[in-house]
């Protein structure tokens, strides 16, 4: 039977173990597999970098959740991105969103640039700008558009379907980082994207206890090449971490519902609080991406960024928090805050950061599933404690 998404989260992919009746997929903690003769494998299993039954169950699950044909699991989100970028060759160019995760910028600027893969930074929320850059590429060197939507950390919304139509019209690929939304809220393949990537470390795992990444596609040829690269490069997810990811995904729906409920309450409160100059959250009706996000997703996520008024010191704010943790990462059940300029986006040159709005005063808030009133109280007391001259 065809399952709805909340059931698919629990029963999708490989549902339990047919051999023993165990309701959970077993952890196949092995590096290799016995062969009955030369070329005679049991079920095609030969070496766990190439394939492992626990990882394969997870890969089947993430493909089903994203409404894709093929899913690949990696040791981190950046391992997934590294493998996807390896589809391209020297002389190729990519369009990338102007506020993307600092690690994505770092691998493009400090690793792949040395191999001749170039990038052009564009405000992908402005479709006219994307089209203009593609139209100006007379030599056809631009091979793909790489989008984050919502983007990290300013939550900028890109119309994924509009970009994919422009890209497909000229034979370019569209790659979408869907980490902030997850397939529970947004399915970029359904909007025309060719490749979806995730840091599974975040909402998919959901408990800050495993690092992982994914790539999901529908195209047979792209999938064939990605599987080759996954095996050749070798940044695969291990069986224990694959098991943890399957376990985490089972509760994705209930977690995301609570995450979003809390985030909207906190965003509205911050907007009206008088403590901040700016709140970035696509779930606010005043946000420029609100209508597009309503159209292409079934929710707004649980990431908020905000800028404190100048009478408050952001460094003191971080030190004054009692419940909320200052830490890298996001998407766990616990609330986390970070300072993008010196943490997640430190690899991006200061002039580029500030041009797009990633200033020293910007605070990124991953809203967890604690009681919203406790979160509000902690933020408020930390803001009040950070008042200059107090």
Structural features, described:
There is one protein chain. This protein is α/β, with parallel strands linked by helices. It folds into 2 domains: 13-250, Type I PLP-dependent aspartate aminotransferase-like (Major domain) (Aspartate Aminotransferase, domain 2), CATH 3.40.640; 253-385, Aspartate Aminotransferase, domain 1 (Alpha-Beta Complex). It is 37% helix and 15% strand. It is built from 14 helices and 12 strands. The protein has helices at residues 5-11, 53-65, 77-85, 102-110, 127-136, 160-169, 182-185, 220-233, 239-250, 252-273, 290-296, 314-320, 350-356, 372-385; strands spanning 70-74, 93-97, 118-122, 142-148, 173-177, 195-199, 213-217, 276-280, 303-308, 325-326, 336-338, 362-366. A 7-stranded mixed β-sheet has the order 1-7-6-5-4-2-3, sandwiched between helices. Helix 7 links the parallel strand 5 (173-177) and strand 6 (195-199). The protein is globular and about 80 Å long. The mean pLDDT is 96.
């Amino acid at each position: 039977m065809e399952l709805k998404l909340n059931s698919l989260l629990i029963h999708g992919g490989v549902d339990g173990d047919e051999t023993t009746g165990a309701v959970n997929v077993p952890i196949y903690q092995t590096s290799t597999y016995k062969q009955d003769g030369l070329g005679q494998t049991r079920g095609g299993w030969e070496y766990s970098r190439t394939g492992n039954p626990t990882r394969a169950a997870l890969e089947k699950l993430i493909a089903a959740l994203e409404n894709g044909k093929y899913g690949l699991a990696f040791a981190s989100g950046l391992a997934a991105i590294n493998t996807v970028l390896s589809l391209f060759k020297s002389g190729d160019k990519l369009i990338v969103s102007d506020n993307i995760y600092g690690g994505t910028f770092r691998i493009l600027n400090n690793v792949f640039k040395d191999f001749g893969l170039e990038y052009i930074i564009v405000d992908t929320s402005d479709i006219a700008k994307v089209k203009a850059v593609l139209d100006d590429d007379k030599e056809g060197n631009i091979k793909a558009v790489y989008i984050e939507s919502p983007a990290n950390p300013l939550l900028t919304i890109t119309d994924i379907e509009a970009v994919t139509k422009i890209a497909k019209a000229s034979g370019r690929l569209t790659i979408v980082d869907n980490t902030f939304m997850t397939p529970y809220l947004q399915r970029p393949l359904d909007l025309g994207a060719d490749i979806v990537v995730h840091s599974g470390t975040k909402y998919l795992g959901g408990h800050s206890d495993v690092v992982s990444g994914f790539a999901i596609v529908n195209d047979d040829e792209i999938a064939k090449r990605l599987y080759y690269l996954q095996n050749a490069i070798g940044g695969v997810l291990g069986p224990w971490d694959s098991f943890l990811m399957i376990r985490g995904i089972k509760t994705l729906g209930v977690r995301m519902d609570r995450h979003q409920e809390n985030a909207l309450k906190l965003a509205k409160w911050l907007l009206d609080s008088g403590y901040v100059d700016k709140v970035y959250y696509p779930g606010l009706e005043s946000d420029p991406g609100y209508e597009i996000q309503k159209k292409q997703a079934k929710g707004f996520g649980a990431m908020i960024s905000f800028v404190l008024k100048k009478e408050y010191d952001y460094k003191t704010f971080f030190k004054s928090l009692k419940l909320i943790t200052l830490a890298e990462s996001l998407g766990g059940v616990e609330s986390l805050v970070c300072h993008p300029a010196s943490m997640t986006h430190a690899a991006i040159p200061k002039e580029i950061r500030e041009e797009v709005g990633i200033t020293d005063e910007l605070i990124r808030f991953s809203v967890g599933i604690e009681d919203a009133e406790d979160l509000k109280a902690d933020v408020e007391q930390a803001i009040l404690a950070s008042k200059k001259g107090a």
